[in-house]
Every structure is written in C-alpha cells, then in structure tokens.
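Case study 2.
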Amino acid sequence: MSMRLIYRNLVFISIHVVFTVGVCWANTSELQAGRFAYVPNLQAGSVSIFAVDDKGKLHARGNIKVGSAPRNLIAVGRAVYLVDVWDHKLSVFSIDAQSGGLTPSAVLTTGQSPEAVAVDPHGRFVYVVNGDSHDISAYRIQNEQGDLVEIGRYASGQYPTALAFDPCGRFLYVTNYLDHTVSAFTVDSDSGALESLGLFNAGDNPAAAVVDPTGRFLYVADGIGSTLSSFRIKPELGTLGLVSRIAAPEYPYAIVINPTGRYLYTANFGSDDVTTYAINAETGIPRIIDKIAAGIGAFSITMDAAGERAYVANLRASSLSVFNVHAEEGTLEPVETVQADPGSATLMLNSVISGAMPASCIN
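Prediction:
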C-alpha cells in the first residue's frame, strides 16, 4: 500500500514547526530566532516563505519552486532540509539571514516516499523516514553551510511517518503507520549510526510521536484508532513500557508538548479541533482539560520554541491557524487564521539554540 494515494486524492495541508538548531560549530547569531517560517506546498511543488512578527502572525514573503511534491522540511542553523515524497529526494537550501530567502545548494537521493526529516538534538545528524521503502536514511552535517554526507540506511517498520528524539539525542523513535508499531533505536553519538531496540505496539495507525522534555515519556498519536498512547522510556536502555492508552478525539494526526512538559496538544483531523491535555508529572498519564475549534480537517500542530504560540494546519480548509498559549493554564486563544496554498504540508519556524544538552544528559 502506497501512502502516495492519499496525496493524489486530498489537498494535503499540515503545519509542523521544527526549530532551527544551532550546531555546536556554527555561528548562527545573525539568524534571529522565530523570524521566518517555511511552508512546503505539496501540490504546488513550492516552498512559501513567511516573516513572523512579534505577535506570532504570519506575513507572506513569496515562494520558491522546489520539486514535485515537497512534504516536510526542517531548518538547521543556516540550512533548510526538505524532502519530496514523489521525487524521493532530500534537498538542501541556504538561508539568507536578512530576508529569509532560500538558495538551493544540493540534492541527495533518499529511500522511496520520504515522509519526514529531523535533526538530532546535538545538531550534527539529519534523519529521513522513507515510507514505501520502510527505512530511515541518516546523514552527517559536515559544516556550517549544512552540507551532508550519507551515513547509511536502517530498516524500520512498515511505512514510517514521523521521528522523535529524546532530549539527550541518545534514542530515536519512529512511528510505523501500517504495522501499528513504534521503532526504537539507539543513536551513536560519534557516527550517527542507528541500532535497533525493537518494535513496540502503538495502536492501529500511529501517525506522530513526541518525547517529553524530561526524556521519561514517549507519547504516540494513533490517527485512525483515535487513541493517545503513553510509554515510559527505560533509563539508559531506551526501550518502551506502555503506561496508558486513552481514547482521543477523532483522528489525532499530530502531537506536541509545551517546553515545560506540563501540557500536551493534539490536532484532530476528524473533529476539526485541538485538544489540550494536562500531564501528570509522576505517572506521565495525560488527561483532557480543554478543546478549541480549529479549521476543517485540523491535521498538524506545533509550537514555537518559547511555548508561547501554537500553529495548526487545517487540511480541508487549506488554512493555517495561529493561537496564543496561556502558560499557566495551558489553554489556547485564537490569534488569526491565514489562508494557505493548496497542498501546504508543513510550516517550519526558524529558531536558534546553542545545542547544549540539559544537565540530566551529562554523565
């Protein structure tokens, strides 16, 4: 079964913010955090560039043609990495620090139907999940320009769709949409190579995953089964133990946790809304505390680095929703809805961080 059939029949819009990571050897101070946003347009074969103002609002700054079906991207230091699900390629672009404009610099071959791309928390390696070839491509970032060298390919489960790292970058978790599992891997800190820790059952069709900021829990959204699974990550081992699996609103296809780890959010495609969960600090079990309407077909959600704003893509409405996040209560307040181009697949906000690890990661 090829997931590309989905893209041929739907206007596929999602919004997923992944933050620019300041690699340890790269001086990215001229790239102000949260200044630009990048949206790959699956149907148009382009990337839209937005400026982001101090209230989190989006201001269109033009488009660049990039390929057949750009699916997902991530901004890392001075580079943007973008995967094209039909061309089976990973493209590299340099970011203009003043305008946010993109200049193409390289194209690499991936596996079949690359669905998502992520960078490790140290900012040294890039990973791509390939749906139809059921594997993961790994690359090393060579320099501050973001040039890549392939490390290798690693088997996953059936049709991997998303990636989630623990905060220390020691473990990688991949959702496998068609065999109902999550793959767990250790990440070699020197080479970036992956070693499998096995497969763990995660509901009917796990679509997205996130690790909490403490690195103790993994949360998996089951898109078709409409559940939310919580797993405890075993310290030093990285293996998973199921804690809870609760009913979620209809078709939760995306998931994010705020930086404090107190609140979790899902974008629910079937019920056209966003659910807020409070997380029990001891058990890791989430409970629903609020729900707010988004657009028709809410398909993805992300948050800025400070946890002050959330962004939702509404697939059927072809729009992007911006929300303020109330820090104490965790609830969302609408800011604006921006009409998007048909097929907008991901929204990435640039952010610059040091790459330094939390104190808990230091042995």
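Confidence is low (pLDDT under 50) at residues 1-29.
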